[in-house]
Amino acid sequence: MDIVLSRLDALALNPDLAPFLAILKGARNGIVYGSKVRFPHALVMIFLFRSGTFREKLKLVLKATRQHARNLSTFAVVYKSSMLVLKHISPTGAGKEGRYDSFFAGLMGGYTVFGRQPGSVSQQIVIYVFARVMLSLAKLAIQENMHPLSSLITPEARAQITNNAWPVFASLTWAFVMYIFRWYPDTLVNSLRSSMVYIYADSDHWDSFRNLFIHNK
User: Fold this and answer.
1) Which three-class secondary structure state does DSSP give residue 17?
2) CB contact set of 47 (below 8 Å; sequence gap of 6+)
3) 170-205 b/e with 16+ CB inside 10 Å = b?
4) What is the pLDDT of residues 100-157, one digit of tens each?
5) For residues 134-162, b (16+ Cβ closer than 10 Å) or e, as one string?
6) Are 96 and 42 in contact (CB under 8 A)?
7) Dist CA 120 CA 118 (whole Å)
8) Structure pTM?
9) Cα separation of 134 and 99, whole Å?
10) Residues 41 and 60 sit within 8 Å (Cβ to Cβ)
11) 132, 117, 102, 18: which is closest to 70 by C-alpha?
12) CA-closest candidate to residue 105, choices 134, 81, 131, 122
């Protein structure tokens, strides 16, 4: 057994295999992280808000967990494989990472994994990432030497924007979602719409003390 482990260690530490082993570990970590994130979330949401038998709910939990883990794992494989290929065909010299390799590798992974499979789990992942990207881009937009207009932003203005960016972002986000929910609810994703119906629409209706405070309906 010790001999087998020693050979596996030597294989894992082989520098020639490192780029390919990194792809395998990315796949492994995608599965583990996706399962850890999705399983408790799906367990709570499905058992609280979905109808059906215990067996049916459990199958939905496992299906959502499997899809989340598979998406993150597959994306890791496509992204890291694309980075490896781009590094070796780079016009700046083989073996060197280009400035925009990560962008194009992410584009390939995003299309392959999420763009062609627009299910509810994929949409939730993409929307989560999109919100974080917008916040990061807002921070980058006011950094020094980031774009031609950076020199026009004074240090005082930069500080004011930084301090007020989150309150503005949070306020406008909720302003838009409440307006859309009020007048165009069908355009919202099902999970968000159902939660908003439960909180903001169902709370307008009751016919007894029992369904005023004890039960929703």
Assistant:
1) coil
2) 57, 61
3) eeeeeeeeeebbeeeeeebeeeebeebeeeeeeeee
4) 999 999 999 999 999 998 888 999 999 999 999 988 998 888 888 888 888 888 888 8
5) eeeeeeeebeeeeeeeeeebeeeeeeeee
6) no
7) 7
8) 0.82
9) 21
10) no
11) 117
12) 81
Q: Which residue has the tokens 């890291």?
A: 80
Token pair belonging to 100: 């925009």
Q: Which two tokens stand for residue 154?
A: 């004074």
The label of the residue with tokens 């520098």 reads 15
User: Residue 70: which residues within 8 A CB-CB, separation 6 or more?
Assistant: 31, 34
What's the token pair of residue 158?
Answer: 């930069």
Report how far residue 30's alpha carbon sits from residue 28's, in angstroms, rounded to the nearest whole number: 5
Question: How many whole angstroms separate alpha carbon 133 and alpha carbon 128?
Answer: 9
By the 8 A CB rule, do 162 and 142 touch? yes
Q: In this structure, which amino acid lies at residue 68?
A: H
Q: Is 101 helix (H, G, I), strand (E, B) or coil?
A: helix
Contact 133, 106 (CB under 8 A): no
Contact 71, 34 (CB under 8 A): yes
